[in-house]
Amino acid sequence: MATEKKTTATKAASRGAKKASDTAQELSFTAEQERLAYKEMLLIRRFEEKAGQMYGMGLIGGFCHLYIGQEAVVVGMQMAIDEGDQVITSYRDHGHMIACGMDPKGVMAELTGRRSGLSKGKGGSMHMFSREKKFFGGHGIVAAQVPLGTGLAFSNMYRDTDRVCLTYFGEGATNQGQVYESFNMASLWKLPVIYIIENNRYAMGTAVTRASAKAEELFNRGSVYGIPGEQVDGMDIRAVKRAGDKAVAHCRAGKGPMILEMMTYRYRGHSMSDPAKYRSKEEVQKMRQEHDPIEQVRQRILDAGSETEDSLKDMDKEIRAVVAEAAEFAQSDPEPDASELWTDILVEA
Amino acid sequence: MPVQILMPALSPTMEEGTLAKWLVKEGDVVTSGDVIAEIETDKATMEVEAVDEGKVGRIVVAEGTEGVKVNALIAVLLADGEDNSAIDAAMTTPAAPPELAPPVEPAPVASEPKADAVLSTTTGPVTSEAPEDLEVPEGTEFTSITMREALRDAMAEEMRSDDTVFVMGEEVAQYQGAYKVTQGLLDEFGGRRVIDTPITEHGFAGVGVGAAFGGLRPIVEFMTFNFAMQAMDHIINSAAKTLYMSGGQMGCPIVFRGPNGAASRVGAQHSQDYSAWFSHIPGLKVVAPYSAADAKGLLKAAIRDPNPVIFLENEILYGQSFEVPVLEDWVVPIGKAKVVRAGSDVTIVSFSHGMFYALAAADILAEEGISAEVIDLRTLRPMDTATIISSVQKTNRLVTVEEGWSECGVGAEIAARMMSDAFDHLDAPVLRVSGKSVPMPYAANLEKLALPTANDVVQAAKAVCYTG
User: Fold this and answer.
1) Chain B contact probe: residue of A184, A341, A347 with most B CBs at under 10 A
2) Residues β-bridged to residue A88
3) How far are the Cα atoms of A98, B29, B281 from residue B336, in angstroms, in the given order?
4) Residue A198's closest CA among A293, A332, A335, A58?
5) Is the ipTM of this complex over 0.95?
6) Phi, psi angle pair for A87, to nearest 5°
7) Alpha carbon A266 to chain centroid distance?
8) Which fold has domain A64-102+131-311?
9) What are B214-237's pLDDT values in tens digits?
10) What is the pTM of this model?
11) Taking CA atoms, what residue in A is nearest to B231?
């Protein structure tokens, strides 16, 4: 599986106009970028591990979809955009919110359904938003965020700004009709939207090859609409950042939408209640050992000597403290007041 | 026998039109397929082709004539060998409009309960005047415009005053609107703000909601609300619920508008009233006006509203003219019903095209000595229950009228509210008049049977007055 992925990623990279664009030089991160990438990805990983644990303790209810394994995608893309650019995604959204700079305490308190949660406890795991951080959710219906993100991009064009909208969805969502309705309009109107397919290989419990025709080239799903697409090694944050830079430049230049297919992998089940029997333990293990996005950065940092084992340990400690504080907060914060049942149904004019 | 050329119906709801231009003159020989005239409907100018061959014997309706009824004789065509003497015969033989089987008696509504408590004031016709209109300042001038124009003017006025307002939908721009409601908007506001979409309701409804999240104020036109079924997920899951799910952060100021309810002879998939469907949803406001004045004022209010508003229009009303106040900024508040006719014996509540039956029934009832108070709900959600209750406190009797199905319908909701909030004021059970619970049939007689009639309303009103 891992080798197969590497081959397709390389093949995809060579498909572009500039051949062999992933040379070591082009992919290289500065020490500061490596540090940032490591820290951000680790925060998401530790946060999600804690969320999983709290779910097991019955502190988080309902559906809870963890992002563990996919961290490089959102962190790499965040490194490619600027302030004011928008982000919208599906229900597997905790990582996106943290990467957008939303307070882990607010995210965790929403997971536990408390009053200081980002949606006052009324949204839950799948429904959080931040106008301030330009994060537009958190959507629970598969692919619904695709037209919505296209609409956000429309608002950018209407206002004549050069902002772009990052619209994330899983490879399972690529089979939804509304995705193609969106592709059509985005291309027709040259909207500044980057469609990011997070291909983690399984739509709930169904392998991508069992549900998608031409599963090996989902990046090509926009080709009939004239939307360029690229397949990217989504486990390598440098490749994500490089593809993101290119797509952002494409959008900002007024050339319309672009599709990035991020080849990634989720280590956990679809949601907390999914035992993930549809794949082998070995497959997961192999991915973790050979392609873990965080481990890759860690190794490079140590090789370059910009940090030591000890300084990285300190960093981990700091992050664990942030997550512990969020978890503590999410348990001590009171539930919403009963009166909140009747608020926020309509904006009072 | 000469061929009679009749005024054609060029749309499902066309009743009359203007004979704009003759392209032939008396004496011309035509063959089938030749364009002989141009006819203006309220939506478009259409060409009329000859169906038969012959010589134009007489042009009966001169070009430029307005208000020519569908099926009126407009010209006579002479066949080979016929001369002018045949024309007079053709003129005197009445044109044969395709009136089918004799009209079927409307199905009687439930006439229960019949009881001994007979209304005391049942002698002689009663008179009624419209109650004083407190919404319009005294001395305001009125002008007669169609529903279609009122809606267009509302959009244009709001677009002039707020650059974030734009219209999107199928054929709203270059074609000037499938029902011509957006006529002229492209010319005034340009392609940036009047946007033709592909025929993809699910997608463009979502794009509209996303644009609203992005700070714009979209008006999304559905060619008819039947097609909004494709977009239901975005209307409900994305537009209506997000404010709540975001703890109040993510308002969605958007208007979904278009014709709703029964049109005419278009069959089950294009003739359905969605009033009750949308009224069920917390997070939506639902507006369904009857008069052009209300439509204009309410549409302006809807566009300014920070919430998603479902604005249900009615195709049959588009071409009808109403008195609309001439005011700089005529806005009707959402959520207020209006007593459009004062009365004392029975309250009739309706909305949208249902008002047509309600008002006609009130006239008939007045002739028979029953004074009906007629309330136009105008907004279905939030529903102005207080106005209904205060009327029921006076009349003690209530009939609801809607074109949609009765099960879990708007009338059912009103009846339930009266049970809980006005029970002691009711002297009879609330009766509902509604469309019959069948998919809309195509056949003219069956379609008629499926819809409510003024007579249904009269029967129901008499039943609650125990005079049936």
Assistant:
1) A347
2) A167
3) 44, 60, 19
4) A293
5) no
6) -130, 135
7) 11
8) Rossmann fold (3.40.50)
9) 999 999 999 999 999 999 999 999
10) 0.89
11) A178
